[in-house]
Design brief:
The protein has five helices and five strands, in the order βαβαβααββα. By secondary structure, the protein is α/β, with parallel strands linked by helices. It has a single domain, classed as Response regulator (Rossmann fold), CATH 3.40.50.2300. It has a five-stranded parallel β-sheet with strand order 2-1-3-4-5. 27% of the residues are buried.
Length: 119
């Protein structure tokens, strides 16, 4: 059974690559976006995502504004979001989890809980 990919939204290419490698090792398909604009373009063009891993601080469209746009669209609002950030004390409404960037192991645990294990 094929699952929809995990959409990784982060402006740092090293972070995107590291998360992608980590998720691929666990058997998850991944697509990436460098900011909220690129992520929304992907989703509004019909791109699918089982889960979104979202950075908060990005140029053009940050995590807060992306999440607000996501929640305004009924279909997109159903996609769970895990915030993956260096920011302390910041969060977003109705997310599945929040993980600090210095704890990638915790990120995998959150992904597995959100998706029910690797595809």
């Amino acid at each position: 059974m094929t699952i929809d990919p995990v959409l990784v939204v982060d402006d740092n290419p090293d972070t995107r690559d590291a998360i992608t490698r980590l998720l691929h090792i666990r058997g998850y398909p991944v697509v990436t976006a460098k900011d909220g604009v690129e992520a929304l373009e992907y989703l509004f063009a019909g791109g699918r995502a089982a889960l979104i891993i979202l950075d908060l601080h990005m140029p053009r469209l940050n995590g807060q504004l992306f999440r607000a746009a996501q929640l305004r669209d009924e279909a997109l609002a159903r996609i769970p979001v895990i915030v993956f950030t260096v920011a302390v004390g910041e969060t977003l409404p109705d997310i599945s989890g929040l993980v600090r960037k210095n704890n990638p192991g915790a990120l995998l645990g959150q992904v597995e809980r959100a998706l029910g294990g690797p595809g």
